[in-house]
Design brief:
Radius of gyration: 19 Å
Shape: elongated
Order of helices and strands: HEHHEEHHEHEHEEEHEEEHEEEHE
Strand order of the largest sheet: 6-5-4-9-12-14-15
């Protein structure tokens, strides 16, 4: 049986992590044609994971991180639609773990009238949640990560180990089938991975621009079954791969209220 494209692309990214690769050499190693490797590199280049060179490729330079305010300004309508759609997945009385990130921030702002227990490292949400009478709020301590207005590090991890939840609501810089959630730092993915382990269900909120995106270098693997709330049926190929990787897909639309 031939190796699936996602498996090949994962192997290509691993090979690129130690330096530039040569197309013909990698084709020989993977037992596929050079044209197949070129198509895989073209796909990885399209999602800005690699940069093509003469006869091969190198990993793309990791882009600088944007601030939370900058991320909130990008695809704002889509993020609000995703947030509204995700409300249907939450029941009063639930315990939720809320991750950092702009889409989770949009979701959290809709919870002020609900009756929930919320565990979060998302400091940007505190002004919206602290006065809500039906919320029992637990804030994870730790080191401040100013770009996302969140806490990370061993203090946040150790605190979260003491708690479990019904659902973990997560965001990510990228969501890639077979690899998981992509972020800029190991501290981020360490905490996200624990959030997933401590929750009975995992829900990822990600607009279509995040799907298949692998620009950063740290990864949090997803569980066998999870839910993806996104805003578009495109990219269809990536959504199909994510579905095959265990995602239950929910597509938000502008008509969601």
């Amino acid at each position: 049986m031939s190796m699936r494209s996602q498996e090949r692309r994962n192997l290509l990214l691993e090979a690129l992590s130690v330096g530039e690769i040569d197309v013909d050499e990698v084709a020989l190693r993977l037992n596929v044609s050079a044209s197949t490797v070129r198509r895989d590199l073209q796909h990885l280049s399209a999602i800005r994971a690699v940069r093509r060179t003469y006869g091969g490729a190198i990993l793309a330079r990791r882009p600088p991180e944007t601030t939370l305010a900058e991320r909130l300004a990008v695809n704002g309508a889509e993020k609000r639609a995703i947030a509204r759609a995700a409300l249907d997945l939450v029941a009063d009385g639930d315990t939720l773990i809320l991750d950092a990130g702009s889409t989770v921030a949009a979701f959290g702002q809709l919870l002020a009238t609900r009756r929930l227990r919320i565990i979060t490292n998302n400091l940007a949400l505190l002004p919206f949640l602290t006065e809500a009478p039906g919320l029992d709020l637990v804030v994870l301590g730790g080191a401040l990560r100013a770009t996302s207005m969140s806490t990370i590090g061993p203090l946040a991890v150790e605190a979260l180990r003491l708690m479990t939840a019904d659902r973990a609501i997560l965001s990510a810089d990228g969501v890639v089938a077979g690899r998981g959630l992509c972020e800029a730092s190991l501290d981020q993915v360490t905490l996200k991975s624990l959030m997933m382990r401590q929750a009975r269900e995992v829900i990822v909120l990600a607009d279509a621009s995040k799907l298949g995106r692998a620009e950063q270098t740290a990864w949090a693997p997803l569980p066998r079954n999870w839910t993806l709330v996104t805003d578009s049926h495109e990219p269809a190929e990536e959504l199909q791969r994510l579905s095959e990787a265990g995602a239950e897909l929910r597509i938000a639309t502008a008509s969601v209220t």
